[in-house]
Write a structure and sequence with these properties.
By secondary structure, the protein is mainly alpha-helical. Helices cover 68% and strands 0% of the residues. It is built from 40 helices and no strands. Mean pLDDT is 87; it is low at 278-289 and 320-326.
Length: 731
């Protein structure tokens, strides 16, 4: 079997096990074993098949084994593990993937045991303690040992009891620098991504139970990612439920912590958008008016809410900050949120040899690291600046290393010049901004944010990142995991997640959460407003209307809601129903220009041109400096036989950036006034606006033939006029 065939068969097995189709999964596993010609696994497979057959036979005989559920789950879990083992055996030999390449390399190196690595770390930690961290040799040795520990854990086969005990000892050893546990956690994440191992997952639970915030947060993030990745498989391990319950009892704000992590991952989805245009969001115009009428009167100019993407300003305060006047304010807001604003700045600063080592992408930043220790003199003002910048909690660990390493690209003379230019006042200012006076909760948020950003950098920027499954492509909907629902199904958590999705315009995700919430809180009208808004932005206008009408039962006074309902009715071509809601608003806002425009437009759609004119006249009166109402007034005037008035307005329109439709409408008006030469002139200009594409002109003209007949133009005159336009344009 080729490597591609091995992976294809393995993925098929996993899919079958996810669907609980065990017989077919066993057959595919047998095929995989035969394909790699390694029959050492057949005994395991036969044992699983026999156990499954006995279970089914017992069940068919009508007997209910009290252990049946446990047996069944153990069977599935064992089938997954067997598939992993067979796949790994096949790929270990020649797969070029980084994981398998590293496994082959480490086998040749014969790394020390976990107990030996632990002893080495303890010895070096004691040396650093005695020298107050100044021993370069101790720092170097501890770094080398950390890399060995990371790689050994990352590439390890399923851990045995002795190995688990040794790794638990490392996690619990308070004498060791905290980055040891941090690196062990990241290694466990990569190891679990490569192949599931309940022993490794249990170690993550052990780490999450630690009191040190950095260790706990990293471990929980890795736990959530693993549970999301193996969402089907983990259902077969009841001990996971027990471990989660134990963590919930141990950590008082467990639910809050899970919520913070989830919200940070939602923000991580925004990173690419921020890279492109610092969160410049472009939404589709889902709500479009009649296209012909829109062209004639430029409805997007005069009826803004039909084309609006605005949320209800009465919702949560932070949802109303979408239209920030100044870019710097928007930047500051994203920074306060914890958005990854630095990614694009550091994309090109990951080429240093330091980042060729996988473990270094997850390493907590420390100034004593030998890779950066000798880059600049300690008294250099540029060094002082860097030291201050690296205290900034908004910069992740990986980027802090990049800051220092990038100085190697700057000639020494240039660095000295930078130092001279850098005044004490500047250093003082930066120092003030980096002073940490934040609450413990905020510090925790920053720890979570930093680690997620470090993960993001690795899975996107590591030179061999394509060898890893990018965790940021997973559906990281932790609140939907059955295992986590007992801790994330409360109203506060779901509402925070839903609103975060909504704010970032992930409407489908937000709607799914709001649907969950509406089952809990059926009378929450604001919730139905949000559901309606999500559906409307997804183009589900009828469904949006139903949600809005449900909200209207309790929020009938909401101006925003009334406008939304009216816009839905208009998009569903029911202007008479839209008028009911516009009239509600008119009673409270008689001089609202946009409202008058929309009412006028409804009458226009109902072909009640006389009534429409009344409202467009009012718009023109309310804003006589604007040209917004000119087009609808001119067109309504034409349709009601007020040709002179229509002509006056079209002359003003043609003097102000006219469109094809403007020339066309002006031509109709002149024809109705029997000014045939002028009509031809305007029609020719309309053709010119279409770059001579007569078919486009004819298409637009054809839409207006019923209105021309209404204006008294004889049907037999129409082809004659069109031929005259053809001759005039070509002459």
């Amino acid at each position: 079997m080729t490597l591609q065939e091995i992976n294809k068969t393995y993925n098929r097995i996993i899919g079958l096990l996810d669907a609980k189709e065990l017989k077919e999964a066993f057959e595919q596993t047998q095929s995989l074993i035969a394909g790699i010609r390694d029959y050492s696994f057949m005994d395991q497979l036969n044992e699983l098949q026999d156990t499954y057959k006995y279970m089914l036979r017992y069940r068919m005989e009508g007997a209910k084994d009290p252990m049946e559920d446990q047996i069944y789950h153990n069977l599935i879990a064992s089938a997954y593990l067997l598939a992993d083992q067979v796949r790994n055996r096949a790929l270990d030999v020649e797969s070029p993937i980084t994981y398998y390449s590293q496994r082959r390399t480490l086998r040749k190196q014969r790394l020390p045991s976990y107990a030996q690595l632990h002893a080495e770390l303890v010895e070096m930690a004691a040396c650093l303690s005695e020298t107050k961290g100044t021993s370069a040799e101790a720092n170097r040795r501890i770094e080398v040992t950390l890399v060995q520990l990371f790689n050994k854990v990352w590439t390890a086969d399923p851990l045995n009891t002795e190995e688990v005990v040794a790794l638990q000892a490392i996690l619990r050893d308070k004498q060791l620098p905290f980055e040891v546990a941090c690196q062990l956690i990241s290694a466990l994440l990569l190891a679990l991504q490569a192949s599931f191992d309940m022993a490794k997952l249990s170690l993550l639970f052990d780490a999450a139970a630690q009191s040190q915030e950095e260790i706990r947060c990293r471990a929980l993030i890795c736990l959530l990612l693993t549970l999301a990745y193996y969402r089907k498989r983990t259902a077969n391990y009841p001990e996971i439920d027990r471990r989660l319950a134990a963590l919930a009892d141990l950590i008082p704000d467990f639910t809050s912590l899970l919520r913070q992590i989830t919200l940070r991952f939602i923000l991580a989805r925004e990173t690419e958008k921020i890279n492109q245009k610092l969160q410049n969001e472009i939404l589709p115009q889902l709500l479009k008016n009649n296209p012909i009428l829109n062209q004639k009167i430029k409805a997007d100019e005069i009826s803004p809410e039909l084309f609006s993407e605005g949320m209800n300003p009465e919702w949560e305060a932070y949802l109303s900050n979408q239209q920030t006047e100044k870019q710097m304010e928007a930047f500051a807001e994203m920074q306060r949120e914890g958005a990854d604003l630095m990614h694009s700045s550091f994309v090109h600063l990951k080429h240093y040899p330091f980042f060729r080592e996988v473990s270094n992408w997850f390493l907590p930043f420390r100034l004593s690291h030998t890779a950066i220790q000798a880059i600049l003199d300690g008294e250099d003002k540029a060094t002082t600046l860097l030291n201050l910048l690296t205290q900034n909690k908004n910069i992740c660990n990986s980027d802090k290393y990049s800051l220092y390493l990038s100085m190697t690209d700057i000639p020494k003379q240039m660095r000295q010049l930078m130092s001279q230019k850098l005044g004490d006042e500047m250093i003082g200012l930066i120092n003030e901004t980096t002073v940490n006076l934040q609450s413990p909760q905020k510090q925790r948020e920053q720890i979570i944010s930093q680690y997620i950003q470090d993960l993001y950098r690795f899975f996107k920027l590591y030179p061999g990142h394509l060898d890893f499954e990018d965790v940021f492509t997973y559906p990281l909907d932790f609140h939907n995991l059955a295992l986590l629902q007992p801790y994330m199904a409360d109203k506060e958590t779901l509402n925070a997640i839903g609103e975060s999705y909504l704010r970032k315009n992930y409407f489908a995700d937000a709607l799914a959460v709001f649907d969950q919430l509406s089952e809990i809180d059926e009378e929450n009208g604001e919730l139905f407003q949000k559901k309606g808004y999500c559906k409307q932005m997804m183009g589900q206008i009828e469904e949006a209307l139903q949600a809005y009408l449900r909200a209207d039962l309790t929020h009938s006074d909401s101006k925003w809601l009334n406008r939304r309902i009216a816009s839905c009715y208009r998009n569903l071509k029911q202007p008479e129903k839209a008028l009911v809601y516009y009239r509600r608003l008119e009673a409270k806002q008689p001089d609202d220009m946009n409202l008058q425009i929309n009412i006028g437009h409804c009458y226009l759609e109902l072909r009640n041109f006389t009534e429409a004119l009344k409202y467009f006249y009012k718009v023109d009166y309310l804003d006589n400096q604007s040209t917004k109402a000119w087009r609808p007034i001119a067109w309504c005037s034409f349709l009601t036989g007020k040709y002179d008035q229509a002509r006056n307005y079209y002359r003003k329109i043609l003097a102000n950036k006219p469109t094809t439709q403007d020339y066309l409408n002006a031509g109709h008006t002149e024809w109705a006034l029997q000014q045939l030469k002028q009509a031809v002139h305007y029609y020719v200009e309309a053709v010119r606006c279409e770059q001579g594409h007569f078919d486009r002109f004819l298409e637009a003209f054809g839409q207006d033939i019923p209105d021309l007949k209404q204006a008294g133009i004889e049907e037999e005159e129409i082809p004659l006029m069109l031929d005259q336009v053809r001759y005039t344009y070509t002459d």
